[in-house]
Design brief:
Elements (H helix, E strand, L loop, with lengths): L5 H9 L9 H9 L4 H18 L3 E6 L6 E6 L5 H15 L1
Length: about 100
C-alpha cells in the first residue's frame, strides 16, 4: 500500500466495510467538502488506486444521503480489513 497517495490513504481510512457503502458524492463531500465533477473525479481516481492495491472493493447499488434514486455504493471487502488495519497500525507505530 506504499504506492497510495496521501489522499488515497485519507479515503481508505474512512471507507466503510461491507455491507455498508458510501457513494462517490458522499465521499467527495466528506473529504473535499465539494460535490463538483472535479471532486468526484478525484475520488474515483483514488478508488481506482485502492481497488488496484487491495485486489478489489465491494460495489453495490443503494440510496445515498443526496439522492432519491439508487447509485453505486463503495466499501471495503471484509477479507481485506486485516491488511488495511495492519497497514494503519504499522504507520501509527512508525509515527509515534
Amino acid at each position: 500500500m506504499d504506492s497510495l497517495t496521501a489522499f488515497d490513504l485519507r479515503l481508505l481510512e474512512i471507507m466503510p466495510v461491507e455491507p455498508i457503502g458510501f457513494s462517490i458524492t458522499e465521499l467527495s463531500d466528506s473529504l473535499l467538502r465539494k460535490r463538483t465533477p472535479a471532486a468526484k473525479a478525484r475520488v474515483r481516481r483514488a478508488l481506482d488506486h485502492i481497488t488496484r492495491e487491495l485486489g478489489g472493493i465491494n460495489v453495490h447499488r443503494g440510496r445515498d444521503d443526496f439522492a432519491d434514486y439508487t447509485v453505486k455504493m463503495y466499501c471495503l471487502r471484509r477479507v481485506s480489513m486485516p491488511e488495511v488495519r495492519a497497514f494503519f497500525a504499522r504507520n501509527q507505530a512508525r509515527n509515534s
